[in-house]
Amino acid sequence: MRSFLFVPGDSTRKYESAKKTAADALILDLEDSIAPDQKVVARSITRQMLDARNPEQKLYIRVNALDTDLTLGDLAAVMSGKPDGIVLPKCAGAADVNRLALYLDAFEAASDIAQGTTRIVTVATETARAVLKILDFENMSPRLWGMMWGAEDLAASLGATRNRSDGRYHSPFILARDLCLIGAAAAGVVAIDTIATDINDLDALKAEAIAARQDGFLAKAVIHPKHVDVVNAAFMPTDEEIAWSERVIAAFANNPSGVAKMDGKMLDKPHLRAAEKILASRRK
């Protein structure tokens, strides 16, 4: 998985456009992109989208946050369509994940879905409290598959007038990004980089996506179809990285001791794991 394309849950036109992209997954949104008086209507439209899916793409649903009293209604409307996962916004740690997991247990049973198969992706940095809870993953449901960070809602939570200047995030938002990456690695789940808000600056998008992959993010969220190909390319390893990885694996093949030598340098298990991860990323 490299790219997650957000699609408003009430726009069949944008959904049809999104289905034609190479996005690995679509996130059908019932939260921020939907006006309050359209929430109920969006649920039924989103349910129809699930029936008209592109089998090459995963479909996730971003429900409304747990404190809105809309989450259960969202799930009741869409779970019979068997989404691949649920994106939980404004998530504050294990308690929120486990509460959603409990809901999913019930809806899977009611919809004849194999128990435990619906993934959870959290948006883990949208409030100050959520940032402080990123490392709260002990005894968390195994449904958790990924953690995404976001800067827009966090700015409002902090009272910040902006989250970046001259294309660079300010320090509180860099902290949130890095904690999401570290928290996801510690929890053993996928770290997902946030959206790029400038739709037309594809060079900046490319640089941002490459930096995210180099730091350890495994995917990136996008908000426009023309961002998909840029992100997909950025999250594929380079020819140089692939060649290095293949040489590392070959160097270890005849060294069961766990230490190898290549180009006059010693290699140990972390190098091998890095090489294996690079080669695995060639596949979705």
UniProtKB/TrEMBL annotation:
Gene3D superfamilies: Phosphoenolpyruvate-binding domains. Belongs to the HpcH/HpaI aldolase family. The keyword Lyase applies. PANTHER family: HPCH_HPAI ALDOLASE_CITRATE LYASE DOMAIN-CONTAINING PROTEIN, LYASE BETA SUBUNIT, PUTATIVE (AFU_ORTHOLOGUE AFUA_4G13030)-RELATED. It comes from Bradyrhizobium elkanii. One of its GO terms (molecular function) is citryl-CoA lyase activity. It is an enzyme of class 4 (lyase). Residues 2-225 form the HpcH/HpaI aldolase/citrate lyase domain. This is Citrate lyase subunit beta/citryl-CoA lyase. Signal peptide: none annotated.
